[in-house]
Amino acid sequence: MDHEARKRRLIGIVLEKSFKYSDDPPFTLASGRKSNFYFNCKPTTLDPEGMNLIGHLLFDMLEDLDVTAAGGLTLGADPMANALSVISFQRGRPVKSFIVRKETKDHGTKSRIEGTVRAGERVVILDDVITTGGSTLTAIEAARAAGLNVMRVIALIDREEGGRENIEKEIGDVRAVLTRTEVMACYSGKTG
């Protein structure tokens, strides 16, 4: 299966498992905004086929970049980072996964970063959904505080509501596996 075929299949899984739409906007997003549509990516990122597709698509999106690890703010980025790590190993160029805690541990190493990454490593920050970019910016800040060099940000879904532009103020290279426009085009096609 090639990159575009994987994307098409992933959109199908997102529509089936992770996307909700309502003309009466009942959805309150993490940002506090109200919306007619909602993406809960965990049913997709935790699905065996979804995880496999995501791992391959993320790996493809890193072919031009020399990085040693990928991760982001728990919980949204965790299955994505793990999927990438497994697929990258299988494809012969291992990329470690790491987790950014929402708060610093108050015991042990008192670290916000879990994993075997060390200061100076080149990494990618992942997020499941970008709306305002707040979660991603938090992960970037924690990674930088740990001495990691953030080279790129990749979201599973960009809601195209200004988050990418907010993140680009910190990291110039922000990409998305899927955009709201791509998902909505397929949703419209299914319902119309």
Biggest beta sheet attributes: 6 strands, mixed
Structural class: alpha/beta
Write down how many β-strands occur, each being a DSSP E stretch of 2 or more residues.
10
Q: Helical content, roughly?
A: 25-40%
Low-confidence stretches: none
Question: What is the average per-residue confidence, as pLDDT, rounded to a whole number?
Answer: 93
Strand order of the largest sheet: 7-6-5-8-9-10
Total helical segments:
7
Taken in chain order, the helices and strands follow as: HEEEEHHEHEEEHEHEH
Return the CATH architecture of the domain at 47-179.
3-Layer(aba) Sandwich
Q: What is the approximate shape? A: globular
Terminal-residue CA separation: 28 Å
Using the CA coordinates, give the radius of gyration: 16 Å
Relative strand content: 15-25%
CATH topology of the domain at 47-179: Rossmann fold
Q: What is the CATH level 1 assignment of the domain at 47-179? A: Alpha Beta
